[in-house]
Amino acid sequence: MNESRDTGKKYWLDDPRKHDKFCWWLLGICIVVLLADFGYTKHPVFAWEGWFGFFAFFGFVACVGLVLAAKVMRKLIKRDEDYYDR
Fold first, then answer.
1. Residue 38 contacts residue 51 (beta carbons within 8 Å)
2. Is the dihedral of CA 46, 51, 52, 57 positive or negative?
């Protein structure tokens, strides 16, 4: 299934050391964007929108919620392996 092994091509994330670098860079960018929350004036409609990092945490919780909902939905709508062979 892995294209780089089948064709002999090496892609930039094939090297496991680059996984760690990518994760650290991503974490650093997330921290910088979170700290940028101090740098502008907020005009919240609701009080909780004015909290520090509200939208970052809300986005994280929403993403986790979507993943958990997808796991539940998979159990509800999954078909058997031989569904089309019957």
1. no
2. negative
Give percent of the chain above pLDDT 90: 55
The per-residue pLDDT for range 51-82, each reduced to its tens digit, is 999 999 999 999 999 999 999 999 889 888 88
3-state secondary structure string across the chain:
CCHHHHHCCCCCCCCHHHHHHHHHHHHHHHHHHHHHHHHCCCCCCCHHHHCCCHHHHHHHHHHHHHHHHHHHHHHHHCCCCCCCCC
The domain locations on the chain are: 1-40, 53-86
